[in-house]
Amino acid sequence: xxxxxxxxxxxxxxxxxxxxxxxxxxxxxxxxxxxxxxxxxxxxxxxxxxxxxxxxxxxxxxxxxxxxxxxxxxxxxxxxxxxxxxxxxxxxxxxxxxxxxxxxxxxxxxxxxxxxxxxxxxxxxxxxxxxxxxxxxxxxxxxxxxxxxxxxxxxxxxxxxxxxxxxxxxxxxxxxxxxxxxxxxxxxxxxxxxxxxxxxxxxxxxxxxxxxxxxxxxxxxxxxxxxxxxxxxxxxxxxxxxxxxxxxxxxxxxxxxxxxxxxxxxxxxxxxxxxxxxxxxxxxxxxxxxxxxxxxxxxxxxxxxxxxxxxxxx
Length: 314
What we know:
Blueprint: E1 3-8, H1 12-23, E2 29-34, H2 37-46, E3 51-54, H3 63-72, E4 78-83, H4 87-99, E5 103-109, H5 114-126, H6 134-138, H7 141-146, E6 150-159, E7 164-175, E8 181-182, H8 184-193, H9 197-216, E9 224-228, H10 237-248, E10 254-260, H11 270-282, E11 286-292, H12 299-304, E12 309-312
Parallel strand pairs: 1-2, 1-3, 3-4, 4-5, 7-9, 9-10, 10-11, 11-12
Antiparallel strand pairs: 6-7, 7-8
Helix pairs in contact: 1-5, 2-3, 4-8, 9-10
């Protein structure tokens, strides 16, 4: 049975080059072309493609839109992302596809060599599918959380005089396929858009506890560790339970929960938020307001809530 490949690229020469590379794979492959995301979706209505090779920047429907539409339609095609854009953008687009729970099998920066592409096509069209289906992922939140390649880095907090380290801020990084670590500006907006802040926060807490026992448990007891938490999550009992569990797992240093006021939803339950902040303080946590001074920072709220510190932007 022939395999089917859809090449989505607005440049005719690029489409032909990729097609020639696909034919070099030695497989019986039916190749179709699209010039933008919407044309690609029209073709997907009539054909189930085994592999979609897509550019990012295209007029009248770009790669970001195509990934979103494929996710909405729950399409299982394997996807190779190619682009002449900066590698960080290519990597971020690949990450977006993964967060959309699509089968992203490769992300390549142009120019792509024929032997490289033909080898990838042969590999991906002959291997058995090993990516979990959407139904598998939806039925198991743990499977989703384990698929987020998050690592933590630790930024020293310093008192300028006498130049002493007093703690560490726990910062998250997305581990890209090439080994690079992408900063939050690349992936947090996507996580927020998809409503996966809770899963992400649970991963950060779990990895911090692991790192602590490996690297930090013997440090001076006066040091503090600050963890950023979306303030809207502090009304979620499971997140509160995960935070409480930090001290139950043998951590003796003070943990600071950092909240960014600009992330606070207008319709958040302030009574529940305040109650849980007080519960955290009673358990030994400290509470910090991060980025005070950005947009509509509220001084009255700062006074009313039990903050231990205020971090002023810039």
